[in-house]
Amino acid sequence: MIKKILKLIFVFILLSNATFHSIANNKLPDNMNTMLLTNKELSKLEIELLNKFLIHQGYKLPSAKTFHLRCLDYFNIDTNEISEDEYKFVGNDNNYINKKGRFLFNFTESIFYRPDLLDAPYTIADARKDLETDYSGETRYFIAYNKLLFNDVADNEFFLKNPALLVEVVLNFNYENNNFLYENAIPLIETNDKTVLPYVLFYNNYHKGYRARLLNDLYVYQGISAIKEILTLLDDNWHKMDSGINLLQTKVIIPQALRDNALLHLLKLVSQHHDQQTTQQHSRSLAYQYLQQFISKDPQLALRLQKNNYYQMGLTLQPEQKQLLSTDNNDLLNNIFITQSSDNYINLRQSPTTKSPVIRQLPNQYKVIKLHTDGNWYYMKSIENESLSGYIHMSQLVYFVQK
């Protein structure tokens, strides 16, 4: 009996040593029971498996520089300040970035978390199989987010079937590189929700400025009512912003000038608005009333606007008439795009279809203004020739960031 016990102990020691050497040499066998590994070993193995799985699914591993810049862009996270193996929380649900694997982790739990198995072995091969068969139901989510954010490859079907996730990537993560997904997200944004306000006004990386493109499109898609809702929320939270706003669950102090700029942009949208029910004069008076309401809460605002000439945003105050006019720099209210095609030319068409007659062939880097959208097509107007307008497929247009 004693011999049998000694023999079992000897076998256990041999297996333990084999396991140790396999881990040390990064050569873990597929039949390795992951429940025998430490948390540190599991984390390292998880990063490796997910990295290889993504690449197998067509993910193009971004360079360290690209990953760094995009993490700054989307999450305002400097990857130089985090360790290689760290899972850095990005501040929204179960989303973490990993520097070593160069991916966004968005599973609810670790891929090795299988409480349903109780004490039964769960091997590396099992984990790999569960990824490939999407056992958790979250694998496509993982693939879709990473390919979009770091490869600019969109799974349109997935995001259109999951509107909440579509809004998350466009609104919360500031992803604007895919015109189709961006356009489909705009009508879904709830401008009367105070938790949405920071994301509507500012980028997570506020050094990029305020979200002029988004504000313009909210006006186009949802009308002046959306702009009024945003102004009401901004008025309610104007002084609360002094102590910071929550962007991805991180308290961020937005520079006063940037807050003023966002306010003035909203007021420009109000001032220039007119339709069958609303005259231009009424809109200018309404913009004036909004401004006075903010000044009554923040008397220093009037001094800042006067000192900075309304931040060169082309607004003119007429106190006697009680009107605020948008007199100049109205390109701020236009979303400008430049044409881009591998053919070095773009067809401007009469209607939104490839079979439509071509009005003119435009060169690359040609500036146009978006007037409205029809499916996958933008109806555009030339900047240099305002009489020239027509349809361009959105895949041939890149948003032009105005300085």
What does the model show?
The protein is of the alpha+beta class and about 400 residues long. It is built from 14 helices and 14 strands. Strands 13-12-11-8-14 form a 5-stranded antiparallel sheet, with no helix packed on it. Strand 9 and strand 10 form a beta hairpin. The protein is globular. The chain starts with a helix and ends with a strand. It comes from Candidatus Schmidhempelia bombi str. Bimp. This is SH3 domain-containing protein.
Percent helix: 40-55%
What topology, given as strand order, has the largest sheet? 13-12-11-8-14
Strand content: 5-15%
Principal-axis shape equals: globular
Terminal CA distance: 83 Å
The tally of helices reads: 14
The class by helix and strand makeup works out as: alpha+beta
| Rg from alpha-carbon coordinates | 27 Å
Poorly predicted regions are 1-25
**Mean of the pLDDT scores?**
92
The assembly state of the depicted protein chains is single chain
Q: Could you state the order of secondary-structure elements as H and E? A: HHHEEEHHHHHHHHEEHHHEEEEEEEEE
Largest sheet: 5 strands, antiparallel
The strand count comes to 14
